[in-house]
Amino acid sequence: MRICQMCLIVVFGVLFLAEGSWGGKLTVETNRDRPGIDYKSFFLSSPQPDLCLAACAKESKCDAYTYVKPGVQGNQARCWLKSGRPVSSSNSCCTSGVKNSKVVLTTEINRDRAGSDYKSFFLSSPNSDLCLAACAKDSNCKAYTYVKPGVQGSQARCWLKNSVPAISTNGNCVSGLKIDYLEQARSFAITKWDGSCSGSRRDWWDDMCMGWRKRMGSKGWEQWWSNFGNVRAQKFADNSKVSWGQDDQWNGMDGGEAALICTHGGHNNSDGWRGSMHTNDGNGCAITTNQMQVGPASGGNVRFLHLSSCNSINWNEMGKWWGPAAGRVHVVTGFHGYMYIGSRYVDEYKSLASGGFSSGVAKVWMSKMHHVDHWYNGWETICPMALGFGENGEQSNNALNEKYNDRWDDKAPRSMTYMYYPGCDPDGADKLPN
User: Considering the entire predicted model, what is its pTM?
Assistant: First the structure.
């Protein structure tokens, strides 16, 4: 398939893998299942889907849930909490839902938050989690108070609040508030290899990374970075691939929703991409695609992975990205052949962040990073690449349209759509097919 955008021709191909702020809320999908990406399950005290929803609302790690009716997986109703957003399917056994943002609701025992009420109602049973769930489902709710039976009537009562009132001690109440965490952009950059690993100095690389990250911050995302001596292999490797991997820990690559890595890169048939590290943490001076698994299925969060690194998606080793994609990352972007570093590229990384909120991130990457024999590029050609993943060709192709603030389902990578400029002829790699 060929399309023409801004007079630039881009070719798509599809590869198939054989089967083998405020306003956040949780949704309710009746008669829907979301199988997969489970990190916890338990039986419920009563067969009420809202109790499962509440359990998800209370955990920052939970992105989706599935409630299973009694008699399907045991005599009791069962709740499954998920670290990603697996695809929804029709099933009368279940009620499922997702978070539309990184929302968490707190539980404050023996505390009241009087005032700012916009709704109140009696509850079907005296369980404060049912009040918490009501707040979690309502985007207008910023706090709640549960009142025990016998205080304001014979039944327990729930009060929903459109602001956060002051807290006070009251043994008849349970209260809580809604915390809407920011999505997070993480960057990793090296300019000077003055640690135990070697590499040519590139003074503007951290500025390119920082330009993207700060622009993401201006769009409402939290900024997080780890540079120079902190760029070590364990932060990018997954422990499902190697025992020493720590990418899904608090300081690892997979901790945020989008990540940008700015470092020297190479490639070979066995490893795919080899990204240079600053310091050897005992696991070598390079991270490879064979050691990576990115996304919620591997305990992380990254939906968009950007690689400002030479040959990070080399045409001949493109298939090596199937392994990292098993974590259900949505989009991976990089370069076929050499890319270049300099002051004039900083604005392109800023533009990536700006454009990725109104257009597909992968497509913005392609348009901003591509250059043919340009003077400020030293008359060299740059050939960007983008990969989208999904369960079928339609989904993987559509992944290239996903924007940073979209929270699309995390799909098993059975199909990969790749985007490139036909005939692009960079240094450091063969000319791309026409």
Answer: 0.92
